[in-house]
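We include the entry.

. . .
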Amino acid sequence: MTRAISASLNAMDEPLGDEAAAPEQPGPAQRNPAIPTALSAAFVGHLLALVAAATPSVALNVAVVVGIACSVIAMAALTQLAPRDERAGRTFTALISGHGVVAAIMLYGLAPSAPSALPLAALAVAAVLGGAGLAAVRRGSLAMRPPRPLVMAPRVAAVALAVQAVLQLRAPSAAGLAAPVRAALFLALSALGAALLASLSIMALHLQRRWLIAGLLAWTVGWVASMADVSALALWSLGAPFPIGAHQLRFLDAELVQIVATLGGLAIGVALVTAIREARFRHSAMILLVGYAVFGVIAAVGEHRIELAADYPSIVALRRDRDLADAITDVALAGMLWLYWRRVVAPSLPTATTWRPRS
């Protein structure tokens, strides 16, 4: 299996490797089809979240998490382009700032004391901003610079995944913690999730492939499911009723969500692995990626076994095994991202010069 994957990665190495290693090549933004695709997906996601929030069939925190995810993807897409003229630059800055403010309002709207109309209004404004962003990109696509190079995204994603793995293993015992500590734990998981989504969005957009946007959206499905559960537990720590049910996304099968998210992360990982030139480090990254896929499948099987379990002790033991598999997938993906940072991104950055006094 490893040899077959190695052969396929070697066959894919040339086009993606050249693009990732040389992000500064000139060209108009319209040559990057990923950015309009990502903005369109974020716009549609905002509309769907707004409609879902207005109906009682979907929990409000689920719709808000979807809206925040779409705003993060939209901000990552807009920041990848640098308009040439100053007026267009101010427009893009206003759109990015607007998405950030709206995401903060949506997050505040989850508080038990906040009015329910607040997140609905924020979702509506986010949809308007998404439409304005699409119009701005299409109108000014000929006057834009190439996408900005990666600087911190792979390293931030790797660190966020590693810390998230540690906190997720601690989360099952949060019931015995004090309420402020418990709330801080879940809020930290939410912040790490937002940083991870933003970093993966920047990397997927940087590689300029539509199929990577499909992988990013698939991974975002799992992110939404995880953050919806975390947000419900955070609200419980702040005084809201304890969440009912094993998952907040009751309309989706947990096993299917885990498989879709694993496939999305695998698509992004394959694109990054092919950018690593040295065979030794590429093979190491490939092994980590295979481990990510294997333990992602194990986590999906664990989800299925949890649904079939009948007694509480079995459910607790199965959840512990599932959480361990999730932590291993996070660590494996973090290791692969760190190798990508060290072997692809860091060598392409300008080296710092040391000032020396004249003799």
Summary: Residues 1-30 have pLDDT under 50 and may be disordered.
